[in-house]
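In line with agreed milestones, the collection of sequences with tokenised folds has grown. A representative record is reproduced below.
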Amino acid sequence: MELFDNGILQKGDAGKPLADRMRPKTLDEFVGQEHLLGDNKILRLLIAKKDIPSMILWGPSGVGKTTLGWLMGRYMKVPFISLSAVNIGIKEVKEVIQKTKFQRIILFIDEFHRFNKLQQDTFLPHVESGDIILIGATTENPSFEIISPLLSRMRVLTLNPLTKDSLAAILRRALSTDKELLSAALKINDDTIEEIAVLANGDARRALNLLEVCCKMVRETGQKEPVIDHDVVKEAYQKKIAVYDKKGEMHYDLISALHKSMRGSDADAALYWLARMIEGGEDPLYIMRRIVRFASEDVGNADPYALSLAMAATEAFRFIGPPEGYLAIAQACLYLSLCEKSNAIYAAYGAASRDARNMPEYPVPLHIRNAPTQLMEELGYGKGYLYPHDYENAIVSQAYLPEELKGRRYYRPTGRGHEKRLKEFMEKVKRLGREKKD
């Protein structure tokens, strides 16, 4: 007995967007990703053998990650369960897995990188035992976003943006097979199809959405023979940009573009993506939360003022409100784009948190424990502690880490910006500590 419906694509198409209606039902209908699905290529061979392992599908939006997952379930003849890490938690995932004790499933998780490291740990035993075939879809680099134990148990398959020719083929297939488009009796030439394909920038969903907007626009004119031409496409494309989905993929694409432009110190690009988000109706405080995060993650102590400025801009926006308050956001965006960068704090905390999670809970060394009671003092709490201010330069050779972590180093400041001074001070502390030891 199957515990789940084996197809998100088998329900009626009524009311669905064109992009959903045109999802391929077979591998032969799938366009693109020839490096995975061509003759004798890895994914086609795995599907043919019905030997699908757990995997990560890594690639940009609209290139077929969800569809590929569903097709694998169809050819494997096992239920396909599709969830998104954007709107569910591990509790819901566990409930799904619990219901599959008597039947293997393909569990497809979109935006898999949105699960944090501890949440990803939940999947390990189920992937290792083979109870589920886990397919995680992500637009982010798995090396940075997926925990190593999970990556070592899953194949990573990279999907590429679709070519202009592939997108044009998808559009032509829609025009020749979709009932709603056929009923509209549209007229569109090859040049216009290729124009839509270029504007879609490698994303099939974007291409089909744009075609659908064009179709609705020309049908509203009441023409007997509606024509989609360059002017219609141009107008539809502008409308499409204005309709900003604050919970969908455009939301994540644009915030990613803003973050990466700031990280790359391209102030003009960062300002453009910021404007796109604000003009599209994004919550400015959501943008500021990302900018504040950036101040610690990508700037850190290379410029400690960056975090203060980001927080000040947040308060300024709250105080002034739109539209004048947008200038405070723009000021923070530009400053953070153009200041020195360092991810040393991000890397240091990541390393320390891994040790805290994965290593035993080593006791605090006795000499740096607090001794608020006489009994604790008698037990040696605080005994032998050296008060740094009693020593020259307020530096003294003394262990602060557990013995088992002696010599461990987490924070490695760069030689950029303010971190150059911190690095010099760290080296001074180590040097003076060694001298006093000698």
Notes: The chain has a mean pLDDT of 83.
